[in-house]
Design a protein that fits this description.
Blueprint (H helix, E strand, L loop, with lengths): L14 H10 L6 H10 L6 H9 L6 H11 L3 H5 L2
Helix pairs in contact: 1-3, 2-3
Length: about 80
């Protein structure tokens, strides 16, 4: 049977990395701040969506993955590294 979750049950592979990169920004970037940056890039993402992405409770599309990488100043590959 096809599985569409990570081995630990999370709905995405990048959430933990997104949270770590966001918190490592100087000054620290809030979830709302990241959501605002994503909205400026044309995505309909709010603070709650960012929280759910970071906690692994939400799937992330390839379009969102690319926008997250650009907003955080990293490559898509870096977001997917575990």
């Amino acid at each position: 049977m096809y599985k569409n979750r990570a081995p630990d049950g999370r709905y995405n592979l990048c959430g933990g990395k997104v949270a770590a990169l966001r918190k490592a920004k100087v000054p620290k970037l809030s979830q709302r701040g990241l959501a605002d940056m994503l909205q400026l890039s044309g995505l309909d993402v709010d603070k709650n969506a960012v929280q759910r992405i970071e906690s692994g409770q939400r799937f992330v599309t390839d379009i969102e993955l690319k926008a997250l990488a650009q907003a955080l100043g990293v490559t898509v590959e870096e977001l997917l590294e575990t």
